[in-house]
Specification:
Helices cover 37% and strands 11% of the residues. It is α/β, with parallel strands linked by helices. The protein has a domain of 134 residues. The strands form 5 sheets. Strands 1, 2, 3, 12, 13 and 14 form a 6-stranded antiparallel beta sheet that branches. Bound molecules: calcium ion (4 copies). One calcium ion (CA) binds next to loops. One calcium ion binds next to loops.
Length: 462
């Protein structure tokens, strides 16, 4: 007997290659690996899908925030119109504590009014308010002497500004007419017509972005990081920790005052309308007082401004406040380019004829120290001598009819930043938007403190 039974006479016995047998254990391992790979694939697909969904969601969320911010900007402009239409005394700036100015909620969004106060470059704290255009020099009426008084302005540039807006092609000394502009590449003609926006200045010979905007590239009145890093990033700056502002905040093209009294009638011209003036004084103060006032005014030169009229009349400020809205020194209607002593900055006041830095400073510091509404020009007369009143008087007003709302808004979670400048004219029945400019592309303008405030607020909402 062979040790092998017939049943075990396998291929082994016949000298063939053995087929390796797979153990159950190995089989299970292989399946596990396949399952793992498949799972991993599924997980990857899920993650990718999730990520793409998240990106879609975020983009929709940001889009929503941006739409909310856009709506909040519109709400801000409408609100500014409402505030201006409801001021206590028409033609006066609303007092700052009578309206909402910062982080004003509009649903999930909020808006702020940026101030262009044009104060000195050391101002670091963000200021929020509406801006009076009558507090600025009007590019269409300011003389070369007045323009030359602006910080950084040269006599040549002032002359070129006047040449740009005057009708003729006669060259002012140092200025520029078409014969200069036609040699530029691309060439263009001198406008010979009034400025329609302050930014039009960029077309005028000798003007530069540096002079117009200074270091304040995003036009927010704050020293942002890129405005204090030298030439590392735009704009060029002197890295001295102080914001050197451009002249844009001192200039306007919009200031225009309707020359009508509160009843809608023509105002009385103090330089010529003696008969109407006598009647007004008698009707308001009675015959005796009217005669006293007229006696004070008689003799010497004819008055040339409402301010001089008050200063020489011997009236009290209270008496003057009763009639000042009925008086004018101009036959124009409207009167362009008057400067509002209740809002103009020192730099602007110092440019006016007969004025200097010291007189401008005394006006601004008196204004700051007064809590009551400065509702007529009377208070300024007490600060200036007779000669200065005669020089500067014809240019001063206590009214404003064009106001800029620089509205900044964010949507939900502080996202979707938007910014629009709108100039509102309140000289008619209802406020009209006469200019608007989208400044969203200039970047964040609310400064780091507001950014922190928003970040904290979003954190508490989570
Ligand atoms: Ca000209
Ligand atoms: Ca800035
Ligand atoms: Ca810089
Ligand atoms: Ca600087």
């Amino acid at each position: 007997m062979t040790p092998h039974s017939p049943g075990r006479n396998t291929s082994l016995d016949q000298g063939m290659t053995p087929i390796p047998r797979v153990s159950r254990k190995q089989e299970r391992g292989t399946i596990l690996i396949i399952v793992l790979w498949v799972s991993l694939g599924l997980v990857t697909i899920t993650l990718l899908f999730g990520h793409s969904m998240m990106l879609n969601f975020r983009s929709a969320d940001n889009h929503l925030a941006s739409l909310q911010a856009e709506q909040a900007v519109e709400a801000g402009i409408r609100y500014a119109g409402y505030v201006l239409a409801n001021v206590e005394v028409p033609g006066e700036m609303p007092e700052e504590d009578t309206y909402a100015r910062q982080m004003v909620p509009v649903g999930d969004a909020a808006f702020w009014f940026l101030s262009h106060s044009g104060e000195t470059g050391t101002r670091r704290q963000r200021v929020f308010a509406l801006n009076d255009e009558a507090g600025k020099l009007n590019l269409n009426t300011a003389t070369t002497e007045m323009l030359e008084g602006l910080p950084g302005m040269t006599a040549e540039l002032a002359a070129a500004i006047v040449d740009w807006r005057d009708e003729d092609d006669e060259l002012t000394e140092g200025g520029a007419e078409s014969q200069y502009y036609q040699f530029l590449d691309p060439s263009y003609a001198c406008k010979n017509a009034p400025f329609e926006s302050v930014e039009e200045l960029r077309l005028v010979a000798g003007m530069s972005a540096t002079l117009l905007y200074g270091e304040d590239a995003n036009r927010n009145g704050l020293l942002d990081a890129n405005e204090n890093d030298g030439n590392t990033s735009w704009p060029p700056d002197d890295q001295d920790g102080v914001l050197d502002e451009g002249i844009i905040n001192y200039l306007t093209v919009y200031s225009s005052e309707p020359n009508t009294d509160p009843d809608g009638g023509t105002r009385i011209n103090v330089t010529s309308g003696q008969q109407e003036l006598a009647t007004l004084l008698q009707d308001t103060f009675g015959d005796d007082r009217a005669q006293e006032i007229q006696q004070s005014l008689s003799g010497g030169q004819t008055v040339n401004s409402v301010l001089e009229f008050y200063s020489r009349s011997g009236m009290t400020a209270e008496e003057f406040a009763e009639i000042d809205d009925y008086l004018t020194a101009s036959d124009d209607n409207p009167v362009e380019g008057l400067i509002n002593v209740n809002t103009a900055s020192e730099a602007v006041l110092a440019c006016l004829p007969g004025m200097d830095e010291q007189k401008a400073e005394s006006i601004v510091s008196t204004r700051r120290g007064t809590n009551t509404q400065l509702d007529s020009l009377a208070w300024v007369a007490d600060l200036l001598d007779t000669e200065t009143i005669r020089s500067v008087g014809p240019l001063l007003t206590s009214h404003c009819y064009q106001v800029t709302a620089d509205v900044v808004a964010v949507g939900r979670k502080g996202r979707g930043y938007q910014r629009t400048i709108a100039v509102l004219d309140v000289s008619g029945e209802t406020p009209q938007i006469i200019y608007r400019e989208d400044l969203s592309g200039q970047g964040w303008s609310l400064g780091l403190d507001t950014l922190q405030q928003l970040t904290d607020l979003v954190a508490t909402q989570r």
